[in-house]
Amino acid sequence: MPLRHDVCPASTSPDAVETTATPTSTIDFGPLRISYDGRVLTPRPWTQIQSSWAAELLSHLPEGPVLEICTGAGHIGLLALSMTDRRGVLVDADPVAAQYARSNAETAGLADRVEVRTALAHEAVGRDETFPLAIVDPPWVSSQEVSRFPEDPLLAIDGGADGLAVARECLHAVDACLHDDGAVLLQLGNLTQVAALEEWLEQAGPPHLRVTELRAYEDRGVVVLLRRPEHP
Ligand SMILES: C[S@@+](CC[C@H](N)C(=O)[O-])C[C@H]1O[C@@H](n2cnc3c(N)ncnc32)[C@H](O)[C@@H]1O
């Protein structure tokens, strides 16, 4: 399958995106200074927990780079990488988000360890690539509910009819490149979505992944850990 993504080190800029077209804001995300603007989702402080959980897992996972799909401005993956010496591949369909991920990697001093790809989840990874950890932060608001968040870019929040459409796309993509002993940290909106995802995963066929642990953050969101069904 031909890949239709732009691949480059974080320090280069393949997308003709003007990041100063709208006012740039900055936010501290743990020790990282993250830039973004209104065209991408504003970093949410609670999601630092996804980064620290990733770093915790990485101390036990096989060698290899970290994959983050739906990286936005890159902060969750970058914070995780800053706590390890791993390399990372950060993916987002939105060229503006990808450009911020690149510049934020540079600001964080991580450009030499980070490759940013502007691509849809299902096109982002080559057949010969394997990752021990995937971080996935898909849009998870149902299409019916997106009007409740007029400030947020639609691409960043619209998860389709049940809020799980992009999550399913991402898990199919991850299934194809995850190490047998690998792990996935997936962000969702609530426990109802987790139950629906588990039901879908129980059905025959790929992706061959199961939810093994869950951490919920009040009413803000949920992060689930998925592993291969045969993983002890
Ligand atoms: C919920 S936001 C998460 C962004 C960032 N990780 C954060 O926490 O702020 C979802 C991101 O997924 C990207 N996205 C949406 N659909 C996608 C797809 N099919 N493939 C890859 N990225 C996608 C959006 O551009 C957006 O940046």
TrEMBL record:
Kindly give the SUPFAM superfamilies that the UniProt entry links to this protein.
Answer: S-adenosyl-L-methionine-dependent methyltransferases (SSF53335)
**Is Thylakoid among this UniProt entry's keywords?**
no
- InterPro entries annotated for this entry? DNA_methylase_N6_adenine_CS, N5-glutamine_MTase, SAM-dependent_MTases_sf
**UniProt keyword terms in alphabetical order:** Methyltransferase, Transferase
Q: Which residues form a coiled coil?
A: none
Give the domain of life: Bacteria
| Pfam families for the chain | Cons_hypoth95
This protein is called Class I SAM-dependent methyltransferase
The record lists the organism as Nocardioides jishulii
